[in-house]
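Interim report to the steering committee. The following record documents the input for F-actin-capping protein subunit alpha (280 residues).
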Amino acid sequence: MSADQRLKIASNFLLQAPPGELNDVFNDVRALLNDDDLLQRGIGGAFSTYDTEQLTPVKPEGASDEVLLTQYNHDSSSRYFDPRTSSTFEYDHIARKAGPLENGVAEGQDEEARSALDTALQKYVREHFPEGRSGVFVHDGELVACVNSGRYSASNYWTGLWRSVWRVPVTGGTLRGTLSAYVHYYEDGNVQLESSKDVDAGKVEGKDANSLAAAALKLIRTFEQEHQQSLNEALTGTSESAFRQLRRALPITRNKIDWAKIGSYRLGEHLAAAGARVGS
């Protein structure tokens, strides 16, 4: 297998890593590939794609707030734009380290609308997401509002991430969103939930930046709460029906099998004896 083929497989593994588990997957891939030089040369693109898709929050040196890494504030290199400080910073995806804020960027003509929605979104996230971070960016004539809220508990074998991305034209128009949830539970098993929904929330209008932000936030709040409620109802129904049907009954001994002692079970003898009884 060529080096490019091995890198492609390694990259696919990384891109499928559950939220909060990228380092664990990387360590496994590193052991399988057994070629650190090759990893250093070719794996950066997978890390960058993963971080921007996950809306990964990072804190640049000297910054007071975290900044989300997204495709909407990423330039063609390894630099990201922080609109709250009108600055850029570099992020090393492999080392998982953000550089200092620098190179001040002049505020654009859409900054008033962006700032108003950013302020409203921060308040909403503080009220509804204990581990939430947010950011609002101007991209291709639209305000893009992003929310990331992750809870990771490796010691208890579970991770979870909520992401949402909302787009509305700077001057008002149709609000469109994508809502995503990912939960991974892996104690004595491997259970994953991945949900994604596209939303056309309707028209947003306002006579000024603040009223436009308020109108957008009202719809964002409504649709996110509805989606979270629908997920709760679906999971409650699943746990009471589908999971119960999937649960395997205990063996004839009425005891769980101790897999650590599987070698001590005399299954062959029991089967042979049962066969002899059937034959007679």
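Strands lie at 57-58, 67-68, 79-82, 87-92, 97-98, 132-139, 142-153, 158-169, 173-185, 191-204. The committee is asked to note this result when reviewing the revised timeline.
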